[in-house]
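Tutorial sheet, problem 5. The two components below are modelled jointly, 1063 residues in total.
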Amino acid sequence: MKTKLLILMLFGMFLGFAQERFTISGTLKDVTNGETLLGATVSIKGTSIGTTTNEYGFYSLTVPKGNYTLVISYLGYTTIEKELVLNASQKLSLELLEDNSVLDEVIINGEESKKVNLRTPQMSVAKLSTKTIKQIPAVLGEVDIVKSIQLLPGVTNAGEGASGFNVRGGAEDQNLVLLDEAVIYNSSHLFGFFSVFNADAIKDVKLYKGGIPAQFGGRVSSVLDIRQKDGNSKKFGVTGGIGAVSSRLTLEGPTFKDKGSFILAGRASYAGIFLKMANNNSTAGFYDFNLKTNYAINDNNKLYLSGYLGNDNFKIDKAFKNTYGNLSGNFRWNHIFNDKLFSNLSLIYSRYDYNLDLDLAKLDWTSDINNYNLKYDVSYFLNQKMKINFGASGIYYKFNPGLINPLGENSGINRLKLDNKFAFESGIYASLEHKISDKLNVMYGIRYSMFNRLGDQSLNNYQDNLPVVYNNDLGIYVRADAIDETSYSSGESIASFGNFEPRFALSYQVNEKSSVKASFNRIAQYLHLISNTTSATPLDVWAPSGKFIEPQLANQYAVGYFRNFNNDTYSVEAETYYKTIDNRIDYIDGSDLIGQNNIETEILAGESRSFGLELLLRKNKGNFTGWLSYTLSKSEQRTPGGSAGGLGINDGKWYNTAYDRTHDISFTGNYKLNDKWSFGGSFAFQTGRPVTYPNGQFQYNEVSVATYDSRNASRLPAYHRLDISATLTPRKNKSRKWKGEWVFGIYNVYNRKNAASISFGQNVNTGSNEATRTSIFGIIPSVSYNFKF
Amino acid sequence: MKSIFIKNLVFILFCSFITGCTDVIDVDVPNGGDRLVIDASIKWEKGTSGQDQTIILSKSTQYFAENSFIGVVGAMVQVTNTNTGDNFVFNDQGDGNYTTSSFIPIIDNSYTLTIAYDNQTYSGTETLFSVSDITTVEQDIFSGFGEDEIQIKAYFDDPVGIHNYYMAEFISPHRPFRDLTTRDDEFSDGNENFIEFDDEDLIVGDVVTISLYGVSEHYYNYVTILENQAGEGGPFSSTPVQLTGNCKNINNSNEEVLGYFRLGEVDTVNYTIN
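Model answer (structure tokens):
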């Protein structure tokens, strides 16, 4: 009885303490096509009170009773101001108008959203609208999301032709690439020349380089969160383009008697462009399909279904055939419990598979990775000072590292199946965004992740549990022989790991125009991309942590300063970071990974660290917009021998990672001359990639053999290139239903032969040593036509 | 099939799609200093006595040096059969070659090489491996890359149940240096195996020489890495590494000794292109 009274008293005190508060909530959409707007701002004019819409366009703002002017804004859209008399909770859903035609400086546009950006503790994130991406000239006229993010500070790639990208000195396998929440394992088509994302189907792109929120886990360096469009819910439309390399077509429109919409986008390349250079009987190409549809059961419940299917294929005569691709699907249920509580349940499937037929070796190789994911995320908009996010996620993995079959009748190859690997990864998280004062905003989050490596497979046991040993006589690391095997039945746990991952961020608004931010995150990564090449290839397999491989664990600290100038015409962002990663794998000299059932015999565990300074200057308004970014950084790793003995790789000393770039300068700009013409340009400069060069040669068995310097101690020549583009929008467009535009571009205008690699060897005719540079793209002009109706 | 081979193949094939791929340039490379090179390959040609053998000692040079061979003279070279105790002295010919004509090769015996040079002693140990015969040599036209190339395939039978390692050499009249390749029976144990070579300059009437050697696992790794690193450097290649042979300076184990001491039976076939 007494306790009940106490609780009632406290409750009453609390109620009396607080003023009467009401909640405004709703969804923000685009008025022309009904697309929900992610990250749009809803704020109270003249105060620091505000919030942003979530990934589904939903917002909730709880304020005391009163009269307010609500300001609703979103970058690229006309701001709405609405007078509000708040004496009861209400639903307020609005539609904003995209402002395409405004050329002059707009004073209000974007101002409120900029203010909220200064205040939010979220730092180290780059958000790119598809509109911005389409203005950046790209390879062969193809708009490319992954190439665009490489123009941002802190993001590079491992060289032209390499797939994937590197964020803040992190490896390619440390990026969580999500397409509508489904994991994409290989984000490239054609060995990295294009990405798998069709910009016509994409609505929003966010790259988190640091300060990664607690709802994400599993990769230590970044999260690339890509959201597809929902589809035009107002009217049926067709968009498309005919380009130099590929063409695309997108259909979208309302469905389910206007309770939903759909979008279906397809893209395919032509073999022709490559045949010209190769010779007969060869094909190279890719295709991809994006699908999304949604159905609103009622105001509080909405279902979504999204899917992606992509494939690359190469064929050279009968000698060589290679196909690979991603397949993913996501079924989601948005449920709004009340005006403060929003939830989403997702059921996701994703798959990556790879097949190679080599007639030369009479071999057929297949490998794949499948995952099934269930996740539940909830946002609780408690009041204008606090927002809580929490949720849970479980992923079940099945890896097929390789199945080798003989190809053809005369094959000398025996069938070999590498053991399937199974694992279950789960996580629960909670985070609180707390507005401590007008100037100080903090986000505290914690994630607990678990990883369980499961059986149905047998694993080798080694003497002293050491699969790799240092052989003193030979001076190298050798594979240990297995002493026996342990069999694990289906579902039996081989190894399990659990990690707490605190996430912390704060922002302090110094004044109206500037703020200081800091963040810390700790993340565990349980999957590793096994690759011993200088850049990732489709032949690389994903391996789960287990008996011999520990999870990677990263700690990243970042501090930044943000400032807007001249009424938000310019903005400057400066960030500095320091990241350490434990249990980074590297490969012993001469490691052989293909067909290797026992990867533990090829690797040693070490650590890596990276640090840098990123500067970004943006011009946001006016006829000329764009940005200039500069990153000064270092990324290195160390792999000591540890219990295997010996000094380790490179004698246990720190060496550059393969993706260390000291200087990275990027510039991109777009100039709108008039209604008809706009011009774009981008320039990139990067310090050459680290490589291992020869430091001498000797004659052996009548051939010249090179001796090598320390690992990654030399550098390739610097990389730089300039691209330009011009877009012509015929004036007739304005009134017609059919809108078209021509895009003319030149990639690598001054034809610099950037070295993708330099190889050393004897000239086949003279026998003397020479260095050969391989460069991929010279100057490439292109023309494409985009249409919409 | 080894990963590097596949990866390089994949890169070359892809490269053939794109214009303006490769060109020769000037590059500054570091100088690691000269080191002793022991080129000691004892080859027992099938059907012969194997008594004439040569070991070559030299110094390494800078990578782009004009003169790539500097013979080492004044060393004392001998090979001892540790099973029988026989000792074979190799005589200094004054130009880096050290020869003997009294060698006795015995399959599966262990031999130790000892070199005394410049007040240091170097030593290495290896076993003499046997090899299967080359059963047939076939000629094929390979047109996978657009142009027709003559391809030579040498067949041999792999003994089942043992993990065998092979090295093959291919000498073509059009190449200034020989082609080396390695093979193991990981995916093809007990089957008829083949090693193939192609040289786009081969024409009817050319005589090519193919040699097949049985080797140890360590030497197989040595030559595999050597070949992989000889010339291919695309983005899909692995980080090049220092080759570690099996010879060491017994006074100073930190000294980098280049080259390898190995012994093996060899089957050689001369084939005329038709």
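Marking note: Confidence is low (pLDDT under 50) at residues 101-113 of chain A. Full credit if you identified this.
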